[in-house]
Structures are given as structure tokens and as C-alpha cells.
Specification:
The chain has 202 residues and is an all-alpha fold. The chain has 2 domains: 55 residues, Arc Repressor Mutant, subunit A (Orthogonal Bundle), CATH 1.10.10; 126 residues. The chain is built from 10 helices and no strands. The radius of gyration is 23 Å and the shape is elongated. The model has no long low-confidence stretch (mean pLDDT 85).
């Protein structure tokens, strides 16, 4: 009875496998980049056909790399969450907590401005994806944790005041001021800072 032995792959075979893996990774990145570009351009819900055209790949190729569009949107949303989490490592120049709060609003404004298209897209798709919905809820928890570190304990303990500050400093408030109410970048910052100041103790 003869037995088969596994022979090591030749250099040519290994090279071919590496080439296939590299092409797979490159195609996947191109698909994600295509969706990212479309959302950044203002399309909150690009279709698989839109993505395939932008990525210059076949529709079957899109679904060979991603099971469905929800999977692809989740990939984008995960990147969005990573950007939002950067707020945890926010460094402040001011030593006074009230000044740090106002400084933090300016930092958030720049961040929210950059992720607004992706945030709007996530809101559109959250009802179809438990993962995206959970990520958005986690974002609220992250905002709460950041403010708890920044504010005095007596303000954190004042639940209505604290929760109102979370709402005022949220990406939802930023998008509302910029998109629906049409404020300029600097005017939106000024509006948020004004309301935040009014919520602070005298």
C-alpha cells in the first residue's frame, strides 16, 4: 500500500500563492476605498453597483469579498469608530477645566466635520445592522466617559445637566447645526460653546 507524502511547495507555487493573496487584499481595499469615496461625496447609501463601478470591478467580485452590503458598511463603520475613539487621547493646553471643555469643543468640531458623511450613512443603515447600531451606542458611551474625566464630580452627579452637555457636544448636534440649520463651521462652534457655557454652574 502506497502512501502519499506532502511535498513542500516550490518557490514558483509559493510566489503564485503570495501573488493571489496580494491581489485579494488589493481588490478588497479598492472596494472599501470606493465606498468611502462615494459616502464622502455625499451618497449616504451607495449600492453594490455604485461601488463596483467606482472600484472598477465586477459586481460578483464585490460580493466575493463581502457577503452583503451590510458587511461592507460595517467595515466602514468600524473605521469611523476608530476615529471617534481618538478623542479619548485628546490633549489639552489649558489647565482650567472650563477652558478645556471649550477647547475640546473645537477639537470635536474638526473631528465631527471630517466624519459627518460617514455618520449620516451609519444613521441610515443602523436599523438594518445590529453591529452599526451597537457602534453608535458605544459612541455615546465614549462621549460620556470623556466628559466624566473632564468635568468636576459635582457636575457629573447632576444628571440632567450632565446628560444635556452630552447631547450638546454630540455629533448629532453638530450635523444638525451644519446641515439642517446651515451654520458655518465657526458659527456652529460658537453656538455649541455658548450653550455649553449656559449649562455650567455660575
Amino acid at each position: 500500500m502506497s502512501t502519499k507524502t506532502n511535498t513542500p511547495a516550490t518557490a514558483d507555487e509559493s510566489g503564485a500563492q503570495d501573488g493571489r493573496r496580494n491581489r485579494t487584499v488589493a481588490t478588497r481595499k479598492r472596494i472599501v476605498k470606493a465606498l468611502t469615496e462615494l459616502i464622502r461625496e455625499g451618497q449616504v447609501a451607495p449600492t453594490a453597483e455604485d461601488v463596483s463601478v467606482r472600484a472598477n470591478v465586477g459586481l460578483r467580485t464585490v460580493f466575493r469579498h463581502f457577503d452583503d452590503m451590510e458587511t461592507l458598511y460595517r467595515e466602514i463603520n468600524n473605521e469611523l469608530q476608530g476615529t471617534v475613539q481618538s478623542m479619548v487621547h485628546m490633549e489639552f493646553e489649558s489647565a482650567d477645566w472650563q477652558e478645556r471643555l471649550l477647547e475640546g469643543i473645537r477639537v470635536r468640531a474638526r473631528l465631527y466635520e471630517s466624519i459627518t458623511p460617514f455618520f449620516r450613512s451609519a444613521q441610515v443603515h443602523r436599523h438594518k445592522s445590529n453591529v452599526i447600531d451597537a457602534n453608535i451606542r458605544d459612541g455615546v458611551g465614549l462621549e460620556r466617559a470623556i466628559l466624566k474625566k473632564l468635568l468636576p464630580k459635582e457636575i457629573v452627579a447632576d444628571r440632567p445637566r450632565f446628560e444635556a452637555l452630552i447631547m450638546v457636544l454630540s455629533p448629532e448636534a453638530w450635523v444638525r447645526l451644519r446641515q439642517e440649520q446651515g451654520l458655518s463651521f465657526s458659527a456652529a462652534i460658537a453656538a455649541i460653546q455658548m450653550v455649553a457655557k449656559r449649562l455650567l454652574p455660575a
